Amino acid sequence: MDNLLNKCGNFFNILNVGLYRSTLDGKFIEVNPALVKISGLESAEELLKHNVIEIYRNPENRKEIVEKIKKEGSITLYSFPARNFKGENILTNVSVIFDKGGNGVEPHLDGVVQDITELEESKDKLSEIQERYQDFIRDTNLAIFISTPGPVGKFIEANDAAIKMFGADSREDLLNRKPSDLYADPEARGMASDELVKSGFIRNKEIELLNYKGKKIWVVVSAILKKTDQGSLFYGTFFDITERKLIEEKLRASEIVLKKSQEVSMVGSWTLNTLTGKIRWSDEVFHIFGVEIQENDLDFEYFMKFVHRDDLEKINDELENISKGMIPDPFEYRIVLQDKSIRNIYAVSYGESSADGKLQTLSGIVQDITDRKRVELDLLEKINELERINSLMVNRELKMIELKEEIRKLREEKL
What we know:
Number of helices: 14
Shape: elongated
């Protein structure tokens, strides 16, 4: 008769699981390298000196397996806590076939052992991550949603902040409504959807909404396109910038009101004279940049020394556009404060031209969005971690299916 390893060599090479043959009382007869590794020993010769029962943390598990095998002829994917010969606790599952012997062969057990410690730890970690993720989703004031693509769309999921922002009465109420009904401009939803489908993401897109209770709000939306079992879905966030938009509308109307509003919302205003290169900051800009308030106009170089070196090219590109009379679109950049901390800034610009049509004065606002960026990055990391753990779980489940199929084939051979 071919020995066990010759018969199961292919099986071992594919799944890298432990294979063994033992007597009914547990003495190893034959083992493969994978089982030696699981046992924590250096060689098959060492392992053959031991008894199967030595790896059971609870000897009663071994008795239970043997009794079940004697009664049913086999056992499949029986999980039990084990301890290898290095003294390390591990989790394993075992599948065993009882061979009654004959023709000079003593009755024996043929088994397959798999170390599932990592799998079980992954399950625990996944559960922990899911719990933290749910807490994060529930407690954040950032509106988080999942919806289908298209000009109309359908909400699949949303957190409490989204339900409140959109003016829905409950989660069920929101899921029964159309995302397109939120847009003040009926065509804006379709345009945003087309952009997201084409590029795979949108970032910091300002949109005017009219929530389900008729309240006008301004939001910044960031979203990504994900392919799932349910098809392509949008995963995104809405950040309420209504307060900032109100401040923008009052930018030229009242310096006093503006100053107070800026202190509350961390929004500062600035004015650049494109002819002289001089720039004037409101008090809040100085606060955002972490420096003392100065009364005199500043040289543009003073601003540039705060710009993160990786964003200097972006700023220079915007200056090039300004020199051509173009007003920059809203954009983000980073600054480095005197204490070396990094802040994320969102900038919006407005232009005023001279009588001959040349851009003379550029004004605008800057907002410190560091906290919002941190929340968005944290959310993305949690989504990626969940996807990695889910991928591991799927791969493990596929291997378990392969294992069951090979065990079935082994049993058919014995019969």
